[in-house]
Amino acid sequence: MNKFGLFIHTEYYDKQKQSEIIRNLYKNYDIEFYGFDDQLESLPEFVKPYHYNDNINLNSILVFGGDGTILRAKKYALLTKAPLLGINIGKLGFLSETKPELLERSIQLLINNKYKVQSRLLLDIKVFRDNKLIYRDLALNDAVLFRANTPKMIEAKIKTNNRLIYTTRCDGLVASTPTGSTAYSLSGGGPILDPLMEAIVFCPLNPHILSIRPIVFSAKDLLSFELISCHDEPLLQIDGVNVISLLEGDVIKIIGATQKVNFIKLSNKTFYQIMRKKMHMGRI
Predict the structure, then answer these.
(1) Among residues 37, 67, 142, 239, which one is catalytic?
(2) pTM above 0.90, yes or no
(3) By the 8 A CB rule, do 257 and 126 touch?
(4) Active-site residue, 67 included
């Protein structure tokens, strides 16, 4: 194992520290580093450009940053079929497996094949307008329909497998993967799911009626949000990025994707151990 992709937080305040870590790995180990087109200018000179038609098999993609950086690296994991290894230089770092001071040890484990690969569910999201597909994307964390700049609520019809669940007035709607269940959905009152589960969490944001509650669906269920009324152009966010403005009558359809993103797992720590530490849970 000696071919690694690199994906970095290009706006990280201490760019020199990032560069020094990568440079030290290059000097101390027999590693070939590859960067992607939109980041090559921010990477050290010894990092080679990754060309998809060269059939280069990356062993892993090292992601320097926080959870947001890992979410942005998702598309490269899908394109290269390489698993992600998150190196946390952000704040929470819930998706990260290691940190800079432990990185050399982590690289040794990778080189010696002492690791596991975990597959994470993605959501396949489609937006229809007048029965025509106008947008499609994949989400590792979540898809969020939000009322945008108006203080007034949106009204949406929620269905699963073309059968009505309920109609609700609320600030927005969240559909999350198990990986994303500890993100926006959790802040909205949704449940925490083990990240290796095959499920979709639906969580309404501040619904007008108290009995409207979050629901967990099978990843095989087709979940749909039909926008009945709004007072502005609501936004669809995918993994924290605004991607498209919506109109009344638009329909968002969501189902578990056939593709998955793989993550490197180095330690024997369980998800629940990490959750207790990161979220300070269970402390008196």
Answers:
(1) 67
(2) yes
(3) no
(4) yes
